[in-house]
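forwarding from the other thread:

> can someone predict this with NDP?

sure thing
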Amino acid sequence: MANRLALVTGGNGGIGTEICKSLSAAGYRVVTTCVDAERERIEDWQAAMRQDGYEVDWVECNVANFDACAAMAKEVEAKHGPVEVLINCAGITRDAFLHKMDVDNWNAVITVNLNSAFNVTRQFIDGMRERGFGRIVSIASVNGQTGQFGQTNYSAAKAGLHGFTMALAKEGARKGITANTVAPGYIATEMTEAIPEDVRKGILAKVPAGRMGRPDEIARVVAFLVADESEYINGALIPINGALFCSF
Ligand code: NDP
């Protein structure tokens, strides 16, 4: 696997942190993006990771902004060399029923969850094609598969993300590049802590597993998908949702 370099967007979030840990434990060199280093206290996060035995570098970048992503890519590659593994994990929710949703909340969610995949992946795809190796995993959601009340924006973005994956998988298949989607169900992170308690209880009641998922349960699948040996898994969507939604 030759000490490959992995970039994780939103790597300091709930799921992203576990992805950084599992990739680092598997021997990858790992860099995360963070929106605003000062506000996020990223150095504290980095120090806590280091204490747990994980060495992860960080770079400031708003993935909603294409030019910022271009600058970030230059910075990362100048410091660490080529990015061979990319995890599109950054995401936000801005929930409201469509009849109450304003255009800012529509645009913010589409931009951060979907346009970001273009903004970031576009920076690295040429290099991956030239070198004949790349692994791209995008974190979507069960709500992109089923739709969810109050989430027309989020469901559209996450469904769109898998369209992106499928097309990219075809484009990269003969170049040693894979693109896959992971679709988590309800995972215990700050994002789901923001769901009102009564709504969360209602959701949990419908999860056959009877509990929320853990971020490490997502991370282990990501690590599996990006392995050199996983080349024939391409264009797939892997649901991880405690049997909340099953399909074939
Ligand atoms: P968190 O809120 O913990 O993490 C989200 C991460 O994305 C944070 O690091 C956040 O940075 C970053 N981020 C947000 N906006 C931007 C931006 N403009 N530029 C760069 N980074 C940004 O959420 P989770 O860990 O729960 O979610 C991770 C991914 O998993 C998301 O894509 C989410 O949609 C998806 N997901 C989560 C589920 C869950 O149940 N938790 C279920 C299904 C999917 P900052 O801290 O600065 O905001």
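The longest strand covers residues 177-184. thats all i got for now
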